[in-house]
Design brief:
heterodimer; A: 515 residues; Rossmann fold; Dihydrodipicolinate Reductase, domain 2; 8-stranded mixed sheet; 15 helices; B: 381 residues; alpha/beta; 29% strand; elongated; binds NADP nicotinamide-adenine-dinucleotide phosphate
Chain lengths: 515, 381
Amino acid sequence: MRNENSVLSHNPLRHGLRIGRTPEPCTMVIFGASGDLTSRKLVPALYNLARERRLPGGFSVIGFARRPWDDAQFRDLLRSGVNANSRNGSVDPALWSSFAEGISYLQGSFDEAQAYAKLSERLAELDARRGTGGNRVFYLATPPESYSEIIHQLGAHGLSRSPNGGWTRIIVEKPFGRDLMSARELNNQLLAVFDEPQVYRIDHYLGKETVQNILIFRFANGIFEPLWDRRAVDHVQITVSESIGVEDRGGYYDRSGALRDMIQNHLMQLLSLVAMEPPVAYDADAVRDEKVKVLRAIRPIYPNEVDHYVIRGQYGSGSVSGRPITGYRDERGVASGSQTETYVALKLFIESWRWAGVPFYLRSGKALPRRVSEIAVQFKTVPTMLFADMPLNAIEPNVLAIKIQPDEGITLKVGSKVPGQQQIRPVTMDFRYGTSFGVASPEAYERLLLDCMLGDGTLFTRRDEVEASWSIITPIHQGWTSGSALLSPNYEAGSWGPAAADEFMLRDGRTWRRL
Amino acid sequence: MIDISTIERELRQLWKEGAGSTAGGQAMTRALTLNLVARAQDGPSAEQMGAVIQQLTASHPSRAVLARMRPTLDEPRLEAFVQANCLLVTQGAPQICGEQITIDAQGSAVTQVASLVLALLVPDLPVALWLPGPAPLEDPLLLRLRGVITRLIVDTRDAHDAVRALAHLAAFQATEARATRQVLGISDLAWAILTPWRELIAQFFDTRPLLPHLQRIDQVLITYQPGERREGLALSLLLAGWLTASLGWVMLDQALSVEEGTVRLHLRRPAVGRGPNAIRLITIDLIPTAPSRDEPPAITSLCLRAIDGVSADFCVERGEEANYATTKAHVAGHPPISRLVRCETPTLADLLAAELRLLNRDQTFATALQSAGIFAEWLPA
Ligand SMILES: NC(=O)c1ccc[n+]([C@@H]2O[C@H](COP(=O)([O-])OP(=O)(O)OC[C@H]3O[C@@H](n4cnc5c(N)ncnc54)[C@H](OP(=O)(O)O)[C@@H]3O)[C@@H](O)[C@H]2O)c1
């Protein structure tokens, strides 16, 4: 099995172990460590990884923010964050104290050169004391306005390259730019300091197991692939709906809107995953190559066509599940005459041999009746009615729905005879992961943080992917700002969006799925 | 006597009732991932196994056939009944259900169980046979079902002498490997319980700078709680077998000594380079500790050591509290790095679930067992 005389290139004790390899000891530097994301998502995810024995000894965290905290205060804050947000309930005190030994706080402002010098010293000290070997992950959990300053400072202090043959990576949170120009600009800034393989652009949707299952479902089952094209598919609907309003993120949201906040990233990712060709391998570049091809093949919507392909909406007051919801314009942080859309529906065409002529309908919105994410592939109906005494329209098309949230699963709608009657009725065959497997899935951030530490970028967005996606989105924004039509509240909170969105589908002789 | 169609009708009825209670009255497909055949020797163990099978439903929805065999009772009797195993995993989430058929056989009727099981298997799905108890390899059910099962699950710790059982299992594996039938995956729950030990030791060497030390190991120290039937010793032999097989260590003749209860195995490293120093000897010490009153026999620590040249020490030690372990790496010239990890004692259902996740032969276990089997042969009874 082993070549004697040779130096080991892989760990022979790993063979046959069912959990994956452990990352090398490293330090994660979190910029914006006193913020919401850090205590609600990042540190709970890291703690859970430690709890599952997925992190190596020596793993360390440095929190960077302005607040005048010391290590103990920072650790306490994180501990209560884990208590409140971990899927495993409150912390195990013994485990926490071992984990927290590696956590420290560094007070500084993002534009303060001295703070980076201190950071550099701290990193070197951890390399020596905790064996982190020059390996580091920088996490930008800050307001997006700060990204470029931090990137610049990291470069200026030589922190984009590791000493001792270690590695350095950087994770960038969403939003990645607010249009094609700014995304390009951010990419340029990043790539002036880092190399593309060092950059991990996060889209937490890709960290959800349910989303990863789309590829498993498509490429581990031979029976669907022959049906997965223009010959068999009538259209595809992708829905990501939220039942909450903007809550306390009004200020942020009002500068963003549904198209930027949801469609540009999450829905485009779902679209690429359902529509992509099989990759030549399941690795970071092969998968992302195929996803980019889908985005590049999307026929652009020009600014003057926007009204024809895109519907936008904004919610007025109403109620969701019996809970009253304030109208969008009355939310805190939202401008009184706000033109920000809280709902978008759009129709896209992918101009490839596989998909030419098949419309992809995407919709996403806030204050809708339910929180649902699903992809529904509707197949063409049978060409002739064989069963003479039944009308053709009594046959409904087959629909394959891949449900991502809240009940992950797959349903297939088929026509079936009603026993004892001359009648065909649709029945759904329903497979739910939740009722078939009772094992909890890890949180998206757990998977993504681990992948980054292991150097696997498959579930992160590559430069060309972000830019391809923005180049579809930006002309739509241009169409809206240059057009004369004004947006005013046009759907009631708790309804399925504006009436125009239904008419939009009816024009094509189709309807939205009722979810 | 039992009628297969009655059992099947009852199963259908069961799922119909289940489907009726789901939201929207949708037709539900049930998911089954395997056939699990289990043999119990008496009532209490049947009950305990039933409970384990029910917990397994969460990760392995299966058709379970649990056969309770009591051949020593006089009156021949064969009965079967059907139940759904439903499990509420999280509050509010839908239940997870699997199905279980319990066969009760006594007297001469036990010989009919295999044919009944064959008729009850769901086609196309793998078949695992779980045989707890002291002598699984002599079990008539194994002989009769050998052609259809894809995985055999035993636990050498159940044997009257776990060390002998290890040698026996290794011999069985060797015979199986020579047979031309479809490959049988063998699982020993004694091996499954070692997974955290393997994982924690392996993790040290996922780090590039530490990986080369793996070729420099001179000493291995394993401490264990012995147990009345040499269970702890069997566990440490499996670990020793695993290290030997994974690291390509070469066994020597006469390579075992026993001193004050400590078993020392002598091996050598594969040659690195040339010259008189190319070949180095390795010792593996298996050291019994004080038995614990309220816990089953277990491994308590595992250390890998390099003493020649730069000394390096890699240890995993179970804590005072059984649910934790400490890992410690110390390479001369660097500060020691240690951490506390959670290491909960797995339940029987956890162990089974882990083994059932394997679809094929577990090659790592196969080679570890082979080496451990040789060590076990060397040991005096
Ligand atoms: N929260 C979420 O659920 C969520 C979800 C997806 C994506 N994101 C993205 O993640 C990022 C962080 O979000 P968040 O909600 O955690 O933001 P936040 O709560 O506003 O936190 C911002 C952090 O940045 C620090 N900061 C701001 N300016 C600084 C400066 N000049 N120097 C040093 N520190 C500074 C703040 O610390 P001090 O006040 O102590 O200086 C604070 O720790 C954003 O890009 C957001 O879009 C967040």
